[in-house]
Design brief:
single chain; mainly alpha; 3 strands
């Protein structure tokens, strides 16, 4: 419980920093887009504003998922973090489609030669946005790895998506100032593809975590080696792993010497149980069954 609370506190802290940064960025980019007459920068401002709502969803999802198990939910609430990531992906996707639609609408509705040329303020805003959002991506990704939070990692990639969309805006603005104003709304369409791509990746990752997939081969091999290193374990008869949200559950059958008293066999299983949960923080619970070994090492 203490570990879950600590992880939740880290996520909340990082999320509040993200909210403040995104609010400042969205207001600044919107102002620059309006003053400098840049559709791409206004679209980019909308993307940054959507980051605020997505971060709030992350905070809510992580807060709820950190609740202790209860009678109705004996395995805890970890999957609600995946639900938060899925909701985030849908918001991202809708935002991207809207921005792309507006870009296409501007191209179809306006004469190329009368499209406004973005001012220098939009150019400066795009450059600042790229730098700030890349820093936020690395910062959020760092803590997402520490607490193993899928929702926080999704929010990190939301920052990276925003940085990439600012690159698209920068290209459009520079192109427009060089005499190709059509590049500004085209940049909005490019931004759309970046956002939708990020949304699809977040959605797929969240769905994978909700389907109780087994751990990767590397993780299972490390667990297997750790179990076999314990004195008294003759062999592993069965090892099954499954992910539940961002946590791991293990079903394990080990063989021990058939002549061992029940208490000694139990103690071996307890040592294995405690060691695996201590060594691998992602492991929430292990069920261990003890079998009599036909060919014992003892």
């Amino acid at each position: 419980m203490n570990t879950l609370n600590s992880q939740s506190q880290i996520v909340i802290k990082v999320s509040w920093i993200s909210i403040v940064v995104n609010m400042v960025l969205s207001v600044g980019k919107l102002f620059a887009g309006i003053v400098a007459q840049s559709g791409a920068m206004i679209s980019d401002a909308i993307h940054s504003a959507s980051d605020v709502f997505s971060t709030l969803i992350v905070m809510a999802g992580v807060k709820i998922s950190s609740k202790a198990a209860d009678k109705e939910h004996p395995y805890g609430h970890e999957r609600l973090e995946c639900v938060a990531a899925i909701v985030l992906s849908m918001i991202l996707s809708a935002t991207g489609v809207l921005i792309g639609y507006e870009g296409v609408e501007k191209i179809l509705a306006a004469e190329v030669d009368i499209l406004p040329v973005p001012g220098i303020l939009a150019l400066i805003a795009a450059i600042l946005s790229i730098g700030v959002k890349e820093i936020m991506f690395r910062y959020t990704q760092h803590y997402a790895k520490i607490v193993n939070s899928g929702a926080l990692m999704a929010d990190a990639w939301h920052h990276r998506s925003d940085a990439l969309s600012s690159v698209g805006a920068l290209i459009g603005i520079v192109g427009a100032r060089l005499g190709f104003p059509i590049l500004d709304p085209i940049a909005s369409i490019i931004i759309c593809f970046f956002i939708v791509k990020a949304a699809v990746e977040i959605f797929k990752d969240a769905i994978d975590k909700m389907l109780d997939r087994s751990c990767d081969d590397e993780t299972e091999n490390k667990i297997r080696q750790r179990v076999q290193s314990h004195s008294g374990v003759d062999k592993i008869d069965l090892l099954r792993t499954r992910t539940f949200g961002n946590r791991i559950y293990i079903e394990l059958e080990i063989s021990v010497a058939p002549h061992l008293p029940l208490i000694k066999a139990h103690n071996i299983a307890e040592r294995v149980h405690d060691d695996i949960e201590l060594t691998y923080p992602k492991v929430k619970h292990i069920v261990i069954h003890v079998n009599p070994s036909i060919e014992s090492k003892l």
